[in-house]
Amino acid sequence: MGKGKIVITYGTFDLFHIGHLRLFERAKEYGDKLIVAVSTDEFNSVKGKKVLIPYEQRAEIVKSIRCVDIVIPEMSWEQKVEDVNKHHVDTLIMGKDWEGQFDELKRFCEVVYLDRTQDISTTRLKSSLKKLVSVSPDEFKAALSVLEQLQKDLE
To answer: What residue stretches are annotated with the Cytidyltransferase-like domain (predicted)?
Structure first.
């Protein structure tokens, strides 16, 4: 890696988790400066994604990560070429789940698809939360009773 290499990655980064942090850390290994484009609420709506954390807060969280140098808003699919040119990007990093979908950008920069962090994703977290919220009060009380009994048995 030469001096001054610029790397960019894109994402929603809702319900920030260790997988997001690992993506940033691994992306930063490809260059000297990491730009993270955080999808705006409006763009997520276009993508059919519901976010729990508003853009301003997600961007602030991402900005606070030590290995992130710059945060920009992602407002459309088409802006990637403009971002690569405007910020003199050397490498675009995306998760493996996007493999092949940004290969057209190879005309402008290196494109790397990284493996996702195993056993963690925002989709999985949201699914778990949805299941938890859908539990009836009676089911919740019954589960709590079982847990209390287990705790007593372990004492």
So the answer is: 8-125
